[in-house]
Amino acid sequence: MLLAERIKAFAKLGELILSRDASIQTKEFWQTLNTAHLTNQWFTPNFCEMAITSIAQHWLKQDQLAEWTTLYPAQTFNPSNPKSIGVVMAGNIPFVGLHDLLCVLIAGHQFVGKISSKDAGLMQAIINLLLAIEPRFSNYINLSENNLANFDAVIATGSDNTSRYFEYYFGKYPNIIRKNRHSIAVLSGAETTEELHHLATDIFAYFGLGCRNVSKILVPRDYNLADLLNHFDDYKHLINHNKYANNYEYHRAMYLMNRVEHLDTGFALIKPDESLGSPVGVIYYQHYSNLAGILSYIDMHTEQLQSIVSTIEGIPNSIPFGQAQNPLLTDYADGIDTIEFLAKL
Predict the structure, then answer these.
(1) What is the pTM of this model?
(2) What's the mean pLDDT in 94-121?
(3) pLDDT of residue 160
(4) Quick one: which of 3, 66, 90, 218 could link to 186 by a disulfide (CB 3.0–4.6 Å)?
(5) Shortest CA distance to 155 belongs to which of 221, 214, 110?
(6) Distance CA 334, CA 252 (A)
(7) Domains in the chain with CATH codes
(8) Separation of alpha carbons 129 and 27, rounded Å
């Protein structure tokens, strides 16, 4: 398949998703999304739709795909000796493995994917829809719930614990091994109401389970946290979700029993903490004194940060409020360029 044909197929996939085309294949796709929560309670219909809509809008358009591929030499997408790429996919948020699938296929390699047990059929559903558009991709895709086999290189996404397992088993192959990452927001106190509402989405989308979810906020020393929390009410309905509520109530009880300083919104807790990754239902915060302090903090945690949400001038690589869960094609996980990795094989 030519690069232009691959781009056309993915662009058509985006069109079908955004148009809600009435074909049988598309109906089956949406049925899988709407019932995924029966297998994985975190994959609610609302969040599944949010994820795939963002992907279709920001990745699966003809001009976006064409512009993305022009960033690399033409031979990158026409390998003389295509490789089989083993991809171990995470299952923390809906469609979390789709960017790797897109990268491997666009680059002209074969995708050998190990599905997460938490996937709830979402990756198979999106692949079925892609194959209905372009059946020739069936020669390039192999999905399995079992161990990977017959691969030349590996892309594996997991936690800090599983990364050690990945490094042991896949260390002899060319690889990308991703670990835990977290995202932060840096507030100045001059944010608009709209920006703070967008921050709520950065925090609470997908119940806060993604590496791009803001898990910690840096604020000036005189910042009014109580006022900030009033802007999060759009997500107070999360308390009606059993698994989320269990997390919130557990940590609330622990903080009360141990007299840990915190504020309680009735659906989320915010507490001072120097750590980056907060539990589900909890947001950490930390005070800063000046821009130098912010930059020092970021520099100290560079290897653990996925995204920085802020409008403060002088913070490198920051993104606007509300964009943490809308990554662009070039926003590679862990900052590792997947296309460049594939081109060097």
Answers:
(1) 0.94
(2) 96
(3) 82
(4) 218
(5) 110
(6) 32
(7) 3-180 (3.40.605.10), 182-319 (3.40.309.10)
(8) 10
